[in-house]
Design a protein that fits this description.
alpha+beta; 4-stranded antiparallel β-sheet; 12 strands; 40% helix; 12% strand; elongated
């Protein structure tokens, strides 16, 4: 039966130096060092002999060109395992690790055996070991199965295992502990299932009906008595899950169940059958690596190997790179800030559409009944009806009239009342008839800009006006003023935002001295900074 060759990590530095110098002997030594292990790993991951051979071939060709780039030459084993793993994951790995069911498990004793003098407690049959191994692995995720394979079958320590998987040593240790606990629990369930079947008579009938045949030589009594090693095994298993007294009595008298209970997950993985490495694969690798006519083919193989990490190790497709993790962290922070801003906006209520820091100080808005400065003698007099005959657009009573800023006298007013039969004219202190305030436009859209102009005009007489805004985001350059007949003026509208501005809508309300209002709708989009 083929056995996996041992790996001498002390020779890694010499191999890397030879690869960097283009030494064919270094490539041959690298192949002899890792070919069997990589082929076993690729077979377990893919379950296809041809695919596994292609992966091993491409891995060594890639190592000739790019392995010397790694920073630490002692990670040569992690480099070749990582290159093979990337190709296995790219081609698609099986749900359960593969082993040839027709092959025999190793007949060597388990490495963790503490007792060697327990007669009758040899290995279970290979077909039963295959069932236990496959049943236990099928309960684990494919990633956890791979971690168990690399840690216990291929003997990768946490630092080398983390470099192979693209993880830190601490995360690699965590995965090994978690996977081993899950694998031990799954194996125990499979063993208990087999014990129940054996106790029910479906398996191990011969061991139950003829216990003396499997008892050690020199045993006394009609039934076998478990030794000290068996009792320790029963005690170890009893701590894991509740046991059935009847099942324990059956196990104590069944040699097959005792052999089955001595199986551990780590030993089961180590002693699983190893595939036979194709003899022609070595010649194929050496020919591809040394033939000058295949230089372009070697470049293509290395290009398919993917990018390298900053440490010079192959990047893994299922592990984000440090740059990707950095961008994900930054993006997560920005999304969190945006969510916080939205929550703060909702908490602020309908009056605030942005998140600003420091908060803005709002100025007091003028009232529409505020008197203009320098009111004349007619202050407090009832207002005259507007052009449409009402006190305003809705026919409601107008507020007290504020004195206009411009007062004119009629130059054609007769001085002698007896010269004309018309009724007496108003006194010289009577103000002129107020005009009509015209506002343009009635709708302002602010997309991509934060300023706009609103045009005011006075028709049919002088006009005094005041303005208010529906939100403190909208700021006018003038909040009140006066215009003589036929004149116009422009008011600048500014949208005030801070870090993040959300889409919104507001209104500007202009009120003349008669109480008539003119509204302007303002719509703006999202803004940043």
């Amino acid at each position: 039966m083929p056995r996996l060759s041992t790996s001498a990590h002390s020779a890694d530095r010499k191999l890397v130096k030879g690869l960097n110098e283009g030494d064919e002997a270094a490539l041959a030594a690298l192949y002899d060092e890792y070919a069997e292990r990589l082929y076993d790993y690729a077979m377990s991951m893919t379950g296809d002999e041809k695919v596994a051979a292609d992966i091993v071939h491409d891995t060594f060709i890639d190592a000739c060109r790019r392995a010397p780039r790694m920073r630490d030459p002692l990670h040569l084993g992690s480099w070749v395992y990582g290159a093979a793993r990337r190709r296995c994951v790219r081609r698609g790995r099986a749900k359960v690790l593969f082993w040839d069911r027709g092959a025999e498990f190793s007949d060597a004793p388990f490495p963790d055996h503490a007792e060697t003098d327990d007669a009758g407690l040899d290995w279970p049959p290979s077909d039963e070991l295959h069932r236990l191994l496959r049943g236990a692995l099928s309960r684990l995720e494919p990633v956890d199965q791979e971690v168990m394979l690399l840690a216990f079958r291929h003997g990768l320590r946490p630092a080398r295992l983390g470099a192979t998987l693209g993880l830190s040593p601490r995360r690699a240790v965590t995965r090994v502990r978690r996977g081993r606990a899950q694998l031990e629990a799954a194996l125990l369930e499979e063993i208990q299932r087999a014990e129940k079947a054996c106790a029910a008579g479906r398996e191990g009938t011969a061991a139950v009906t003829r216990p003396a045949a499997s008892a050690p030589a020199g045993a006394e009594g009609t039934g076998p008595r478990p030794g000290r090693g068996a009792l320790r095994v029963l005690h170890r298993r009893a701590d894991d899950s509740p046991t059935d007294p009847a099942a324990e009595r059956h196990v104590a008298g069944c040699a097959g169940c005792l052999r089955r209970r001595r199986v551990t997950s780590a030993a089961l993985l180590r002693r699983a059958p190893a595939p036979v490495l194709p003899a022609a694969l070595r010649h194929r690798v050496m020919h591809t690596a040394t033939d000058p006519e295949l230089a372009g083919y070697r470049v293509d193989i290395a290009a398919r190997g993917g990018s390298l990490t900053p440490s010079g190790l192959p990047s893994q497709p299922d592990v984000p790179s440090p740059f990707t993790r950095r961008w994900l962290f930054t993006g997560g922070g920005m999304v969190g800030a945006l969510v916080s801003a939205l929550i703060a906006t909702l908490v602020m209520g309908p009056g605030g559409g942005t998140l600003s820091w420091p908060p803005f100080r709002t100025r007091p808005q003028p009232s529409i009944t505020h008197d203009a400065p320098g009111g004349g003698p007619g202050h407090g007099r009832p207002s005259s009806p507007g052009p449409d005959g009402g006190g305003g657009p809705q026919g409601r009573p107008a507020p007290p009239l504020a004195s206009p800023q411009t007062e004119q006298k009629d130059p054609q007013q007769p001085k002698d009342p007896s010269q004309t039969p018309s009724p007496p004219s108003p006194s010289p202190d009577t103000p002129a008839e107020p005009g009509v305030l015209v506002v343009h436009p009635v709708k302002v859209e602010m997309h991509g800009t934060k300023t706009a102009q609103v045009k005011l005009a006075a028709r049919s007489g002088p006009v005094s006006w005041t303005a208010v805004t529906s939100t403190n985001q909208l700021v006018l350059s003038d909040m009140q003023g006066g215009m003589s007949e036929g004149t116009t003026m422009r008011v600048t509208l500014t949208l005030r935002t801070a870090l993040i501005g959300l889409p919104g809508q507001g209104t500007l309300t202009f009120t003349d001295s008669e109480g008539a209002t003119r509204q302007v709708t303002v719509v703006w989009g999202a803004t940043l900074l």
